[in-house]
Specification:
about 35% helix, eight-stranded mixed sheet, Multidrug-efflux Transporter Regulator, Chain: A, Domain 2
């Protein structure tokens, strides 16, 4: 496996925010970031509260809890947000659905607003935050996974280091590309979510390696692309269960079709949100025993 930019995994490292990135990926990402002038595109505060998908009250609660970055309101006007901050708010929203509270999210906030990813690299004109680096991966069509455990330890994995996620303690695993794509679609992005075919290992590429059949099943699940979030539960140091959440189906089917989906499932968890008599959110969660 290629040499990672940071070597130790979260939970064992002195810092609870870790990034696993192969050097060639780092160089490519920097080149695209600077060549396309993505700094301005990611940090231009042209969005408003209505664009976040959250209410004024929810934004105020996040602000009170110290969870917003520099999205301060100017005198006489409402606060504004950048694309990076919209992705951040979407990630916070998803994590809180799984019961992760603000007290365990400080490292997520630092990834977006505080810790420069290239703090120790010389000759870089515009250091990226960790999150900026990962959003650039979306434009490169290159897989990024983010893992967070109940203590708030956070780790990001590029396509070369995705197999390492099978060795983590119990954690929530989120496809960062899928999350970014959801935000982009809400604001006019029409391209489907794409990945480089080389991002995903084949069965042949891991033949003879020390990856177990259970770990291979986890890789297949990530490679499948059918799930928006994957939560891994460990037992005796090994992956035991996967809880997977599919993309939101509201807006893709009418209520009769959604009811049929529920009836056709012998075992699943469904989270449905209605507003003004209409289904606003329809999410399916499955449990897979490894």
């Amino acid at each position: 496996m290629p040499k990672p930019h940071h070597k130790k995994m979260f939970g064992f490292a002195p810092r609870p925010l870790r990034v696993f990135m192969e050097d060639s990926v780092l160089r490519e990402t920097l080149s695209v970031y600077k060549g396309r002038n993505l700094k301005e595109g990611l940090n231009n505060k042209k969005f408003h509260i209505k664009d976040t998908g959250l209410s004024y009250r929810q934004i105020a609660e996040l602000d009170k809890g110290g969870m917003l970055g520099q999205a301060r309101r100017e005198s006489g006007s409402w606060r504004s947000f950048s694309l990076k901050e919209l992705v951040y708010l979407k990630l916070i929203e998803e994590l809180r659905k799984y019961g992760i509270q603000n007290s365990a999210l400080s490292n997520v906030r630092e990834a977006f607003f505080k810790k420069p990813f290239l703090e120790d690299v010389r000759n870089v004109d515009a250091p990226l935050s960790t999150a900026e680096m990962m959003i650039v991966h979306f434009f490169l069509e290159s897989l990024v996974l983010v893992a967070i455990n109940s203590d708030g330890d956070v780790a990001f994995f590029d396509r070369f280091h995705a197999p390492l996620t099978s060795t983590l303690e119990s954690c929530l695993l989120i496809n960062f590309n899928e999350l970014t794509h959801t935000v982009m679609k809400a604001h006019g992005w029409t391209e489907p979510l794409k990945y480089r075919t080389s991002d995903f290992p084949t069965d042949e590429s891991v033949a003879g390696s020390d990856i177990s059949s259970v770990e291979m099943e986890l890789l297949r699940t990530v490679r499948d692309g059918a799930y928006r979030q994957i939560e891994i539960t460990m037992k005796d140091g090994r992956p035991a269960l996967m809880r997977v959440r599919k993309p939101d189906l509201a807006g893709l089917h009418d209520e009769a079709e959604l009811l049929k989906i529920i009836r056709d499932k012998s075992f699943a968890t469904f989270n449905v949100t209605k507003r003004d008599g209409k289904v606003q959110s329809f999410q399916e969660e499955d449990t897979i025993k490894l």
